[in-house]
């Protein structure tokens, strides 16, 4: 969402700039955890709705939270859904946000630890554009 907002402002201010964005994928282990959770949550919600005790299958006593979930099915399903979504999002979020101009890095959230404000970003781009124009207008010497 931040990327889309920044992209909109930059394309209004600099119509000639071509903007590309892509997601920086998290490490495979986190992707696998998120995939497992997305399936597990649906199975768990299905078990809660049907009322089938999965603990009996393993010959275990159902914990009190399972009984509570059977008495409050809608609330339990919502909690499972939102908690697993929260963990999935945490697994898939890398916090990576990098900006390059003409393949030259101008900002990295990984290095700086925070996102640039819109004002900072515009200032960075202004400076880079002026620098590029200045470099192009300099006479080239042959040796």
Automatic annotation (TrEMBL):
Pfam families: Rdx. The keyword NADP applies. It catalyses: [thioredoxin]-dithiol + NADP(+) = [thioredoxin]-disulfide + NADPH + H(+). Its main location: endoplasmic reticulum. One of its GO terms (biological process) is cell redox homeostasis. One of its GO terms (cellular component) is endoplasmic reticulum membrane. The chain crosses the membrane at residues 29-50. GO terms for molecular function: thioredoxin-disulfide reductase (NADPH) activity. Keywords: Endoplasmic reticulum, Membrane, NADP, Oxidoreductase, Redox-active center, Selenocysteine, Signal, Transmembrane, Transmembrane helix. It is found in: Endoplasmic reticulum membrane. The keyword Oxidoreductase applies. It comes from the Eukaryota. Belongs to the SelWTH family. Selenoprotein T subfamily. This is Selenoprotein T. The lineage of its organism: Eukaryota, Metazoa, Chordata, Craniata, Vertebrata.
